[in-house]
Amino acid sequence: MAPTLKSQKMSHSRFLNRELSWLEFNQRVLDEALNPDVPLLERVKFFCICHSNLDEFFEVRVAGLKQQIESEVVERGPDGLTASETLRQVLRRTRRLVEVADVCWRDQLIPRLAEQGIRFLELAQLDETDRSWLENYYQKQIHPVLTPLAVDPSHPFPHLLNKSLNLAVRLNLTQNGVFLRRSAFVQVPRVLPRLVKLPREDGRQDYVFLAHVIEGNLTQLFPGTTIEGCWQVRVTRNSELYIDEEETSNLLKAVENELHNRRRGEAVRLEVERECPPDVQQFLLEQLGLTPEDLFVIEGEVNPIRLMGILEGDHSPELRDAPFIAPVAAWARGSDDLFPLIRERDRMLHHPYESFDTVIRFLQHAATDPRVLAIKQTLYRTGGDARVVGALMEAARNGKQVTAVVELKARFDEANNIQWARRLEEAGVHVVYGLVGWKIHCKIALVVRQDEDRIRRYVHLATGNYNASTARFYTDLGVFTARPEFGEDATNLFNLLTGVCQFQGTRRLAVAPYELHSRLLTLIEREAGHARRGIPGRIIIKLNSLVEGEIIEALYAASAAGVQVDLIVRGICCLRPGVVGLSENITVRSIVDRFLEHSRIYWFGNGLQPEVYVASADWMPRNFFRRIEVAFPIEDGVLRERITSEILALSLADNVKAHFLQLDGSYSALKLKKGGQLHRSQSRFMEVALARPKSASTRQATKRDGPVLRPRPS
User: Fold this and answer.
1) What are the domain boundaries of the chain?
2) Any idea which architecture 120-241+269-306 has in CATH?
3) What is the mean pLDDT of residues 108-124?
4) pLDDT over threshold 80, residue 10
5) Which candidate, 489, 494, 486, 523, places its Cα nearest to that of 619?
6) Which of 51, 350, 351, 441 is catalytic?
7) Long-range contacts made by residues 639-642, C-beta under 8 angstroms, separation at least 24?
8) Is residue 441 annotated as a catalytic residue, yes or no?
C-alpha cells in the first residue's frame, strides 16, 4: 500500500524543505565523486564542486537563515519548519555530508590517485633534493608575500577574509625576562597555487600543500619564538549584497562598494582541522561571534576546492572523460551568413552538444554587416570570453545603435560585469542596468536589419548566458527566429528595460514578473481539465529548481485529476511526489552527470497537440516575482518534435545518471533488471550531435536517434 500524508504523520508535509532539498542535490554531486565508474580526475572535480557549492550555500542560504532568526519574526514556512528548526536540520545534514566527503577523500581518492602516480606528500616524506628545492621555492616565491598577524594587547584579533585559508599559530617567547604565550595568524596567499608541484622528470605528479610549506617555515616568520602549534582554519561569511536601489543614484558605484563589504560580512561558519585544540576552537568561536553549532572539524583537507589544480595540464587523459568537441550545428555548417537560414525557418542550438560558436558568429556578423541597423542584448554573466562584448563594441564603432542591458547583481559575477560595463560604455555602447527592484535574468538578443525587401528583426532567445566558457559544460537551448511577432515582443521588452513605460503585454513571449506565473497556472489547469473530461493529460517539465507553492499546488491538483506529470529537476524540489490522493501521478528525477543540466523546458500535452515552451526561468518565487524572465513557445513543428522525441525522451529514459525523489525527500537510483539496457542521456546527446548529417531533417534524425515519448510505465 502506498504511503499517505496521514500515515507518515506529516502535518505540513505537502512541501519539502528548500534548504534540505538543496543539500540532497549536493549529496548527488558528491555521489559522483564516490562513483568508481566515473574517471578518477572527474571524481576529484565533483569532490571540489561539492565543497564549492557548500561555500555558496553558507554564504547565502545559511546566512539568510541566521538573519531570519535574529529578526525575531517567528513563522513557519510552507514545510512547517521555523528558521531555527531549519537551521538545526541543515547543520546536522551538512555534518553528515562533510563526514562522507572526508572519507571519500581519505579512503578513496587519495589511494586511487597515488596508484596513478599523483601523490600529496608531507614534508617528512621528502628527500634532501626535494627539501632543498622547496626551501629555495619558499624563499623566492612564498616568503615575500606572507604577512604574520599577531594577537596581543596592541594587536586586536585580525579580520580573517571570507573563505581564505589561515594558519592559527600559538607561540611562546620571553620578553624582558617574562614568559609570554601569544597567538598569531598567517593567511595562506590566494595569489599562489595552493598545490606546490615538485619537479619530476619521470612523469609523476607529486605535490605539497602550500599551507604545509608555510607551516614548515614558521620560525622564519616569528624569529626568537618557540612555535607551540599551528592549525589550519577557515571562515565563511555572509556574502549577500544589500543595496537599497530606491536610495541609490549610481547603481554601478553602489555594487562596487558592496563587493568590498562582502569580503567582510558576518561570519557564518568556522572550519578547523582535526588537530586544532578545543581551547583554540573556543577562542576562535568567541572572536568570530559564532556558536559550537557553527563549527566544522574537518578530517581531511580544509578548503579542498583548489585541489582542482591537479586537473591542470594535459597529463593523464586516461583518468578523464573522453574529450568532446561540440560540432557546429548541422543547419549552420558551411555558411558565413546565418540571416538567410533564420529567415527560412526557426533554428535551434543544443549546448554543449552543438557549438556556441554559432551564437558568436551571429553576433560578430551582425557587428560588421552594413545592413544591420541596431543590436540590443541582455548580459547576465559575461564570462571571460571577450568575443560577445567585443562584437557589441565593434558594432558601436561601426556606427550601429547598440544597447546592452547588463545585470550588475548577477551573484558572484558582479565584479566581472562591472568591468565589462565600463568597457562597453567607453566603446560607445548604451549600457543600461535594468529596472529598479528586478534582476534581469532573461537571455535575449535582438538584431534589426535592413533586408532586401524590408526591415526585419532577428531574435535569439536562450536558457543560458551569453558565456562561451559555461556553454561548454552547461546544457542549454537557444533558438533563432525572424518571426514578426517575436521581433515585436522583443522590441517591446527592450523598451521596457531601457525606457520609461508600463508593460504592454506580449503576443508570443511570456514575461515575468508580469504574466509568466499566471500563464503557467492556466496551462497546468488546462491539462487537469482535459483529464477530468477523459482526455489524456500529460505535463513534462525540465528545470533546475521547483519551489513556488502555488505552482506546486496546481501540479498536485493536476495529479489528482489524473494528469501524468514527469518532472526533471536537477536541484531543489519542494514538491513531494508519490503521496496517495495528492501526488501519486507525479515522478521527480534528477540527472547529475558530466555536464550541468541547465535548460528549462515546459511541455504540455494539450490534447495530443503538444505545446512546448523554452525559458530562462526556474519555478521559484524569485523567478516569477522578482526577476525579468522570458519563456517562449516553440512554434516550428520540427523543433517541437526534436525537443519532444529527442531531448525530453532521452532524459526520461536515463537509467544511469537519473535519481528519483522519494517521499521522505531522499533520492534513489533506478534498480535495473539484470541484463537490462543502459540509457545515459548525456552520452546519447553527444552521439546524436556528432552523427547528425547536414542533409537530414531533424524529424528524420530524431526518429532514428531517440526513443519516442511514451506514457510512463507504472
Assistant:
1) 18-97, 120-241+269-306, 330-505, 511-705
2) 2-Layer Sandwich (3.30)
3) 96
4) no
5) 523
6) 441
7) 639/346, 639/348, 639/479, 639/698, 640/610, 640/612, 641/698, 641/699, 641/702, 642/348, 642/698, 642/699, 642/701, 642/702
8) yes
